[in-house]
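Handoff note, outgoing to incoming analyst
You'll be picking up this chain. Sequence as last confirmed:
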Amino acid sequence: MCDLLDSQQPAEKKLSRMKKLRRTLSESFGRLALKKDDNGFDEICVTKMSTRNCQGMDSVIKPLDTIPEDKKVRVQRTQSTFDPFEKPNNQVKRVHSENNACINFKTSSTGKESPKIRRHSSPSSPTSPKFGKADSYEKLEKLGEGSYATVYKGKSKVNGKLVALKVIRLQEEEGTPFTAIREASLLKGLKHANIVLLHDIIHTKETLTLVFEFVHTDLCQYMDKHPGGLHPENVKLFLFQLLRGLSYIHQRYILHRDLKPQNLLISDTGELKLADFGLARAKSVPSHTYSNEVVTLWYRPPDVLLGSTEYSTCLDMWGVGCIFVEMIQGVAAFPGMKDIQDQLERIFLVLGTPNEDSWPGVHSLPHFKLDRFTQYSAKNLRQAWNKLSYVNHAEDLASKLLQCFPKNRLSAQAALSHEYFSDLPPRLWELTDMSSIFSVPNVRLQAEAGESMKVFGKNNIYGKGLSNIKH
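Most recent structure output, in case you need it:
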């Protein structure tokens, strides 16, 4: 019996020391304890009398938006970089006590708890702005308004950066527009220097707000500011960036489906970014049929104009060819003024009226009727757009993009290897996805005729329904 008591003494001493330590921590950090929530993560419990368990607790600290104002405890979330869609492997909750210390409870994958204590010079205020909250962004000015969305230039109260706020109005009868859902779901997984970055999503009862990086202007406005065609070197850099962004999404089986100058944003440094993924969609394998009511008329390929609903990445490549010609020539490649029939006539006037030899299967397309179209023979592109002949290999690249037969169009990846780009620094093909082409030495925009190097525009378009241009 005595042996048993003697063996228990060290354990009792350890228990006594643990009690003293627990008491000290309780007095210093506001009587904090842990318990597991329903999901197996740690919750911080504030107790009145005991820190041994969570029984008799006064309250359980929950996210700030789920508890009353008078019950909120000062909570701070600090991250080196913010990504609202990144789900960390470890669940972390932090709480500030009255003595300005921050206890960080972290549950690892093994389920073990490893408390850490960090000192902060100043605790965050309960009213500090946080990502995901509507009041975290200040609206500065309206940039555009459309049928279901309004875009504002804004400023983040979290980090002070300029943002573009695409505010989508929700209606109870119709719910959230499917284009907004599609745009958000696709963009949250796309991280590339030539694709507009989605910072945050704010959902309230009345609106859905997509928070984008702010980009100063778009290619349409840039070309309007510099009529008559852009500097050949700038065309090359813009086209390279466009193909780079498209190659990235096409490798992920995503089609943009609405390429046009208004949807290509241009930063003040000349960086081009794909925007407006409202009509984009992930292409599944095997392919399904899609709506043919896509792509603004001037940039819509002939196969879609003729009623085809089976298409792949070649759909976007036609738009690339049209934009390429427009940047060089200074006017739209095929500016149809009336209807689909007029648009097709303009295309066939340059590329020739298709037949089964030049386009296998064209007669089976829903809207193709041979007697409806004037019979044209194909021309050299320089006959329609003379400035293509001023730039080495430009006409050849344009001709390989503007193919009526979809399968003959050059892919984005293949186009990047075309001789047209042969004089660019080789390092451009070695860049990581998030690296800008302007990080390569000696790669920069050239001054347009009569203009300085600065690229500025008051308005920039961040989505479908914001531009009322009639094409």
